[in-house]
Write a structure and sequence with these properties.
Length: 274
């Protein structure tokens, strides 16, 4: 019921935008993201990473934080690969949404690497008792080493998951890992983010204006889909899909599962009523 409700709202909103001429700053669709990549090239921005941005006159760092779903990261990585673009994908260790050591997740990470992209650590400081920068560096190094061993690549960059005010207000640097939230990348670059499916500024107009020689663009692949949708639709779709994923994982670990429940009857079953 919820899915149908928000699908109808999406359709009404899109029709209203067409009639009134009102559009969002940048839609959260695959085609809109692709258009943004083309626009960056059209305006002569050199797409780089956190190590090679200094020499080009105009450069842009493309950063992707993977909070919920690795598959969404793979889809964006494929689009960039088709355009000969390489970016950095930041991955969580301390999350309940995916496991970097599972074969499925590990294969997806290696697929992203195989397309020429880099993997960085997406670090959640709230998982630890951190009282100072030394504590922070210890745990960042700890998780970076684990992630590096899991994918067979050295981890050289970190982004913070839901960064605290302390992180944002201090120029925190690490000995062996580049902090994407250091002042260098937050203040010397024009920083643009789509956090919580909301662009704070008009990213497209900023690119077109060429007002800034250095751009730092953060996107979350989870928000991008083939058609324009409300945030509620994306979240409900993810919750729906998670039930099927749980069934498949259970099937891999529970012999003869379909004697008790099968995939065809999974959707629509009210388990609370059983």
């Amino acid at each position: 019921m919820y899915k149908e409700k928000f699908s109808l709202i999406d359709s009404i909103t899109n029709i209203k935008n067409i009639i009134t001429g009102e559009e969002r700053i940048m839609e959260f669709t695959i085609s809109a993201y692709t258009d943004m990549l083309d626009l960056l090239k059209e305006h002569n921005y050199y797409i780089c990473d956190y190590t090679n941005y200094e020499d080009p006159k105009k450069s842009v760092i493309l950063r992707h934080d993977i909070d919920f779903n690795l598959q969404s990261g793979v889809e964006i990585a494929k689009i960039e690969y088709s355009k000969n673009i390489k970016s950095t994908y930041f991955v969580l260790l301390s999350t309940n949404f995916y496991n970097i050591f599972s074969k499925e997740s590990n294969d997806m990470l290696k697929l992203i690497i195989g397309m020429g992209h880099k993997i960085g650590l997406h670090f959640d400081e709230k998982k630890y008792k951190i009282e100072n920068s030394n504590d922070l560096e210890y745990y960042v190094s700890f998780e970076s080493e684990i992630l590096g061993k899991a994918i067979g690549k050295e981890i050289r960059t970190v982004s913070m998951h839901r960064p605290s005010k302390w992180i944002l207000e201090n120029d925190i640097r690490f000995e062996n890992v580049i902090n994407s939230y250091s002042k260098e990348f937050l203040h010397q670059f024009k920083y643009l983010s789509d956090s919580r499916m909301h662009w704070r500024e008009d990213t497209i107009e900023i690119i077109k204006s060429e007002q800034y020689d250095k751009l730092h663009i953060l996107t979350h692949p989870f928000w991008y889909s083939n058609k324009s949708e409300r945030i509620e639709t994306k979240l409900f779709d993810f919750i729906d899909a998670s039930r099927l994923n749980t069934f498949k994982n259970l099937k891999d670990n529970f012999r003869d599962l379909e004697e008790y429940i099968d995939e065809d009857t999974l959707n629509g079953v009210d388990f609370n009523a059983r």
